[in-house]
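Hi P.,

Sorry for the delay on this. The queue was packed all week, but I finally got your sequence through. Input first:
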Amino acid sequence: MRYKVNIPSGKTKNFKVISGDYTVLYQNIDGKWMNIMEDTESEANQAHNFLTAATGDVLLAGLGLGMVIKPLLDNESVTSITIVEKFQEVIDLVWKNTPQSDKVELIKDDIYSWEPKKKFDVAWFDSWIYPFDGEDPVGTYKTKMKTKYESSVGVGYFWPDGSTW
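Then the structure:
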């Protein structure tokens, strides 16, 4: 399974999108362009359990390429999608080319400090970036997100392994 996006190539100071057979989002970290998301089968497989379980009010930590938006909108059990994206550059490169709906709200904020104003049934935490989360970026990210959001999210799913709380 693959959820192909329709994001054109583009570049800002710290982010770039390269569109071809696959679309890839890169971030410039310490002078190196690092692949932080792509619309490959592998990425879709990593989101599969989350997308299968998604229902009600859904929280997305990070916009990325917006790959999961269309399958969420196609899911009649999903009533709302709230996306929290920290970087205006990502919003500028990606947002206007993602599926739009009254069900989708984009909030420019940092998932580490943002405070939810409602409860969510399910969340997809797919926004950690090495080296910002230290030597164990996945473990540190999971711990921080669970501690912060466990009281406001029914089930949280984590990239890359689909683990949950």
